[in-house]
Amino acid sequence: MSENNKENQVLVVDDSRVIRRAAVKILQKEFDVVEAEDGEDAWDELQKNSNISVVFSDLGMPNMDGFELLEKVRNAQDPVLAKMPIIIITGAEESDGTKEEVLRLGATDFISKPFDSISLKSRASAHINYRNEVKSLEKGAALDKLTGLLTEASFHQQGEQALAYAKRHCTEFTLVRFDIDRFADVFVKHGKDIAEQILAKVASLINEGKRTEDIAARLGVSRFALLLPCSDPQGAEVVVSRICQRVSRLKLKMGKDVFNIQFSTGITSPVLDDTEVVFSDLFKQAEIALQKAVTDGSGKIVRYQSGESSVTENTPESLSVSETEVDLEDIVIKLAREDASVTDEQLASAMRKMLPLIAHADSRLKLGLSKVILHLKKRLHH
């Protein structure tokens, strides 16, 4: 373990000593690992230890459970602590409703028990590296005075950095464009003060709905953007859907008039198989999808796929995430035994889980696999 990693420690929180030791055994060669037996113990550690860079936490624990810990961290007065990546360790007993609740509270990601070494190491590495890059960028970020979101110039700067990171590490990358529908009508009819109140409220809903590591910006009067690094297309759509639903509940009552606030939304989640692609290209893709959403009517979400004539439409309610949970060790054993019960879906899911490890090994060991990795990403996500 390098001295460098002492400044990027991993905190594992679980009331099961067996689970904690399993995680330590997997991570200890590459990371400095700190243990906590419940949320209360973890909170004390986070308060005094500024070297912790990512947290893996169970949900069901005595004294303070994972829900309470997550809420406490996200409401911390220290802005660095409040943005700590928190990956929730889930078991088979956790329902989709439970996962939605922890996402609402600000969870960064999930990992299932029993976890495998590849997933645990890759999640720790990806979130630590990305957090370090974001912290350095935030020092020079310019903010919009009304909403507190990034300005357009800062958003493009951070977007270029995030894209470069995604290319280097073969991670996911989603860019979103939001416009408030018919906002000019509100501005003309009700004036600047009311319009600015709406914009500030919409910005707060974007902040509440996004994950901690996501990057939000105000690009113009009623134009917003969101960048979701290290998030697959399905996970990104869950976040976008949540934000759009919250905005759609806003209603402006002025006398007898009721104005329903809604977003038109364009999404692009590119497969980064072209090393020449630049952030401005992806921004244009999101704009193309957004313009189709505007043309098709209020409240539409349009996802860009491969060209101007190839987009798919959704309403916020129709977006969902599904990924086959697999145990890599179990898959390998079954394949070694030529067990025919392994489905194509399970095999594809296993390959997706292994990609971060393959990418990391390629970077460290100079294996020359970058084109192969990009090809695998393209095939496995389509």
Fill in the CATH topology of the largest domain. Alpha-Beta Plaits
Structural class: alpha/beta
Helical coverage, percent range: 40-55%
Oligomeric state: single chain
Examine the secondary-structure arrangement and name the CATH architecture of the largest domain.
2-Layer Sandwich
How many separate domains? 3
Q: Low-confidence segments, ≥5 residues, pLDDT <50?
A: 307-312, 318-323
The Cα radius of gyration reads: 21 Å
* Mean pLDDT reading: 82
Question: What is the count of helical runs?
Answer: 13
The percentage of residues in β strands lies in: 15-25%
Strands of the widest sheet, in order across it, are: 7-8-6-11-12-13
Instruction: Characterize the biggest β-sheet.
Output: 6 strands, mixed
**SSE topology string:** EHEHEHHEHEHHEHEEHEEEHEEHHH
So what's the overall shape?
globular
**Extended strand count:** 13
CATH superfamily of the largest domain: Reverse transcriptase/Diguanylate cyclase domain
Identify the CATH class of the largest domain.
Alpha Beta
Task: Report the end-to-end length measured between terminal Cα atoms.
Answer: 37 Å
